[in-house]
Amino acid sequence: MVLQSFKNCLWLSCVLRTPKACFWSTAGGGLIIQSVSNDIYQNLAVEDWIHDHMDLEKQQILFLWRNSPAVVIGRHQNPWQECNLRLLRQKNIKLARRRSGGGTVFHDLGNVNLTFFTTRKKYERMGNLKLVVKALKALRPQLDVHVTDRYDILLNKQYKISGTAAKLGRTSAYHHCTLLCNADKLVLSSVLKSPYKGLKSNATPSVPASVKNLFEEDASLTSEMLLDAIAKEYAEQHQIDHHITLINPADETLLPGINNKTKELQTWEWVYGKTPKFSISTCLNMAYKDSVLDVKVNMDVKHGRIEACNIDLPEQWLPPELCIELVKSLTGSKFCPNEITTLVTTLLRVCPQDDELHSRWSLLCENMIRLM
Amino acid sequence: VCIHRVRSCSSIRFIKSKYVCVFDKSALKFSHQQRLFRTSPVSCGQIVQFKLSDIGEGITEVTVKEWYVKEGDSVSQFDSICEVQSDKASVTITSRYDGVIRKLHYSIDDIAFVGKPLVDIEIDPSKGVSPEEDVVETPPMSHEEHTHQEIKGHKTLATPAVRRLAMENNIKLSEVVGTGKDNRILKEDILNYLAKQTGAILPPSPKAEIVPPLRKTEAVPAAPKDRARRVPVPVSRPIAFSGKDRTEPVTGFQKAMVKTMSAALKIPHFGYSDEIDLTQLVQLREELKPLAEIRGVKLSFMPFFIKAASLGLLQYPILNASLDESCQNVTYKASHNIGVAMDTEQGLIVPNVKNVQVCSVFDIAVELNRLQSLGSAGQLGTSDLTGGTFTLSNIGTIGGTYAKPVILPPEVAIGALGKIQVLPRFNGKGEVFKAQIMNVSWSADHRIIDGATMARFSNLWKSYLENPASMLLDLK
Question: Are residues A297 and A206 in the same domain?
């Protein structure tokens, strides 16, 4: 129709005007790209960008990426339930929430990430994982790796070396998975253990599994080799050149709007605020002078903010007005140690300057903050 | 009022009994403007049950995780409705229709079934709805109905999604050249218009533009917010300011500041300012910086300012005191816990260095380093933020000369330090020389501190800093 050909003309004229458009359109039904960045937020933003902007009808895309240490939780998960946030803060390990579902993973440079972009109709996880297994076997035929029906890849039928998650939109979809080459298992197990008690939530729970690095099975393997083998297999199956195009996730001209996406993924509202509603019901055992106090605490947290809060203190242990002020301050605040610390220390400024009072207050507040 | 409607409804041929004819008042108002096509079933405010479409991989059920809309919200085609999850896959469900959400069939965490209704959407009356609920999300293209948008007498053809894009960018549709059929304005036209405005080269949208069937008049009962958002665009200027007021609740750091400063209001402040010649101190610091670096510590001017303040407080302890609520008693604090105002991403925090009276300048530098790194990481603890007795604010690192700092209760004094400037001054011989000048602005609680005390403290502090060697005499 006239409309269609006119639109094609427009598109073509734009292609000729803007050479970067040629970057995205290749001959053949596939494109393999690799990120030059190790920043989890930048790389997740690339996934978002491709998902939102690319027409995957003519070509599918394989995206290869690795990250510096980070914990990545699924779209509908609860970070307090999934990992040791205290430890993450101490060790300066980033926390990110991805847009796909599934469970929590630990990334570092010894872990390889693969994202398969297709149209929604062509979304098929099993095929992708079988491709990965085929590539691994081609690289090292003696490797005992297979895909389970939970979309994991197991090594020696025991150890999980890959986990999967996916995101489906209106017309496009992506399936990404990890592959453990040489990740730090000690850090992995310590950060993925939550110390927070009394949490009740409908957030997607992670299923813990024993993991093993491919490096432990065959010390000659490196992440680069794995990436290359998988790219090779993908190229073969899609009948395209075995050529990996590097992309820079900070390049705003190539990926217009990418920096905004990166910023959004780092906001507190996304990382913590998207946590499904949960409640905490726990007992603080506070050692004060010669006795131990049992303080029952109940909190409802919605969108990462304290919706309701109840603290059961022994009578007159703290002046009642101060308790009321504390509850008032907590309500509506972020469930975040930094913010709560600022608020509670401020409250101390405006109450009677009594050492006993101050030490009781500090004790209570420190225990409360430990919940976050 | 409804008589006219009843008559027209009686001629409706119901394809499926589940379609409900809703007596829509606003549809009635504009009914005379509509061109009703009798070839398709004409209903008023038809409620369509939007079913959950196929997810793929043989999945039959999903969990509803988040709603992006609520009952009564207007949606456009392709707007996100909700997020569902199935076996590690998170799916964004988008609307097939323009209309108003009338019913959500599931709550959060409910299991939803593929092929069963997800939401009920009330569609504008003039649109004919295709009777089959096909599984594919792309809407049928066979309808030839037109959309008219009456904007000041101009008839502009555009889909609701395109109209929204124009509205968000404050573009007058009548100024955009439509390249679609019948001069219909497409999304590309809006983008091209924007590109011309900003001079940016926008990449082509590689996705094939699916042109949905055009329908409805402005008659759709748009939520009141839509009307309020329609900012009148001035005729002559091409780019108009599209800012909107935004109201947010006061929480977190801002809330803390509100509390502190409201309490500070009770304190009658007086100010005292002076100028300090730091020429010698600048030189001294240059000499000591590398020594500190060897020990792994960054040495700024603050440790000197803080130590000098503590030495001053030894002579004028009333500045390190606290007045009780009833103004009956003054407590002279033994420890000099000197607070340092810190600007972080979230806002102002004031951690303090404990017991400066027994710390060396180097000790103070170490502690400052620790507090600064914790502060920028948002990891300061309660003990770091409580117990302060006196505060210094080095606003000069950002800029400024004289300031009017606010005392942080329960303290009684505070000092704000301006920036160090190179200025001409006269020396003892009457010659002009380059001096490193910094201004200090003190505020004190006039209920227990008088001007003379503040002035003498300031002079002492100033003398320590102008002649750093004199600090050696009084160091404990």
Answer: no
